[in-house]
């Protein structure tokens, strides 16, 4: 008789979606945090644009700001310290990735390239930002 007075409770399909939504949000947060694969630039550098893609692996990353500040793999160095960093690496086919600010002048860039040439570095890549088109 008790079953006649009470109606059976209907289960809502929305109750089954709440755990799914929680998992999707957790995965979204995980990939947003874990997706930061690119190392930040040590200096405030605005790269020039180009229609090329980088295919080589990074060996030494040099950053040159428009004011002439030089960073090697994120550490501030002077141009005079660069030969010691590159000593003996010219014969090993080391690659140098150069990130120069788009406002850098040739007069600022030339001493750095001279030091790289003197150290025997022949593989220098000037990195750019991809263009929008």
Characterization of this structure:
The protein is 32% helix and 19% strand. The protein has two domains: 2-34; 49-130, Nucleotidyltransferase, domain 5, CATH 3.30.420.270. It has four helices and seven strands. The radius of gyration is 27 Å and the shape is rod-shaped. The longest helix is centred in the N-terminal third of the chain and has 21 residues, at 14-34. With 133 residues, the protein is α/β, with parallel strands linked by helices. The protein has a five-stranded mixed sheet with strand order 4-3-2-5-6, with no helix packed on it. The relative contact order is 0.17. Strand 5 (95-100), helix 4 (106-118) and strand 6 (123-126) form a beta-alpha-beta unit.
CATH architecture of the largest domain: 2-Layer Sandwich
Quaternary state of the chains? single chain
Straight-line distance between termini:
75 Å
Shape: rod-shaped
The helix count comes to 4
Amount of helix? 25-40%
Specify the structural class.
alpha/beta
What's the arrangement of strands in the largest beta sheet? 4-3-2-5-6
**Rg to the nearest angstrom?**
27 Å
Number of strands: 7
And the CATH topology of the largest domain?
A: Nucleotidyltransferase, domain 5
Secondary-structure blueprint of this entry?
Layout: H1 2-5, H2 14-34, E1 49-50, E2 60-64, E3 70-72, E4 75-77, H3 82-86, E5 95-100, H4 106-118, E6 123-126, E7 129-130
Parallel strand pairs: 1-7, 2-5, 5-6
Antiparallel strand pairs: 2-3, 3-4
